[in-house]
Write a structure and sequence with these properties.
3 helices, four-stranded antiparallel sheet, 130 residues, alpha+beta, binds zinc ion, mini-chromosome maintenance (MCM) complex, domain 2, three-stranded antiparallel sheet
Length: 130
């Protein structure tokens, strides 16, 4: 503790504040992952229009022929496995499975988004009014 205080020129309150902020950060991460939902379907949009919807619980390989993209659904997660766009950002994106996650291929104006799903708290009753 003396080492940190001497070399970082922090007093005890600064160290306490830093530790509190780090703990709050970890706590919010844990809360986010505990309450986020695993999606049920993959919605494919081209030029902003929904062109197809696939269930995430069935493995599939989807070929978007006019865009040159190949989407793979495996183990409840979707990935853009092939594309002929110049930057390949969509192919390097990690697989998506939680509600709201999206992969976008901007050159082809193609987006994949995960929708649906039930959060851990959704099946509980919020309130009863009489
Ligand atoms: Zn792309």
């Amino acid at each position: 503790m003396k080492y940190i205080r001497k070399y970082l020129k922090m007093n005890f309150a600064d160290i306490l504040l830093t530790l509190t902020l780090v703990l709050c950060g970890f706590a919010s991460l844990i809360i986010f992952y505990k309450t986020s939902r695993t999606g049920t379907s993959l919605v494919i949009r081209q030029n902003g229009v929904i062109t197809a919807t696939y269930p995430l619980n069935e493995d599939a390989m989807i070929n978007i022929s006019d865009a040159g993209n190949v989407i793979t659904i495996k183990n409840g997660a979707a990935t853009m496995t092939e594309a002929d766009c110049p930057d390949l950002i969509c192919v390097r994106h990690k697989s998506i499975k939680r509600t709201g996650e999206t992969i976008v291929c901007l050159p082809h104006q193609l987006s994949l988004s995960v929708e649906g799903g039930v959060s851990v708290d959704d099946d509980k009753i919020d309130a009863i009014v009489r």
